[in-house]
Amino acid sequence: MSNIFTPRTGNTGKGGPTFPTGGGSMRGLISIPIIIVGVVALVVVWSSFIRIDEGDVGVKLRFGQAVDTLHPGLQFLVPFVETVTVFSTRTQKRSYQNVAAYSKDIQEATNLVSVNYRIDPAKAIEVYSRYGIAYADSIIDPVVFKRFKEIFGKYDAREIVNLRDKLGLEIENNIRGNMPDGILIEGVQIENIDFSDDYEKAIEGAAQAEAAVRKARQELEQKKVDAEKVVVQATADATARVTAAKAEAEGIRLKGEAEAAALQAKSAALRDNPSYVALTAAEKWDGKLPTTFVPGSTVPFVTIPRGSAP
Fold this sequence. Notes:
The protein is α+β, with helices and mostly antiparallel strands. The chain is 51% helix and 21% strand.
């Protein structure tokens, strides 16, 4: 029967059995926890850093209490003590469909409204502390619904149709003015206003009738203008004819006065100078006697002074 205790080299001189040594195994068992601790420590250290992207802002929480604002970049957090809640500072759009509202004349309308908003990075802690991460649900939505219906109810349905831009601007200013600090309203748009079909037909008919009235008034005003032009032209023509007639009459009068004055001057000259007649006749006579005489006609006579040569 063989000996189960086989002597090994290195145990010469020792007659006892040889057992395997456990030093290497113990070192392996000790290194595993060290590796685990190192990995955990590395994970903890790595998770202590957080990156805030451009267009975002972080609210640092220490044991749940907001203590600081973290801006874009790499930020450090104390492990197991601090956490961060990230808000977007970009402009966001919130749409509200089927917003029911009544006009001043009690006409119901279904509206599509949209709001562009963002938060102020400098007041992110206040927004988080007062309203939380869901601030749009708790603050923006109630204000939009309330203020929209209030302003919408101040206008008649016809004014809403005709003064839509004015209505939208008033609603936007009212919503912006009632929004708490830190929440910025950049714009409010009324994308659609939907009255009942019957009322829209009535509005369309009224608008057409009003347009027809305006057109008739314009045509009447045009006719008045045309008539005034005719009157003005006729008055101008009549004035021109009267002026021309007066000028002609004045010319005739002046011509008659001149001729009368000339005749009067000739008459005075004949009266004061009897020889003036003979002189005038002599000036006009060509020195020839007529060759034929009409029976009973006057024979031209020339006075020859006495004592003149034959």
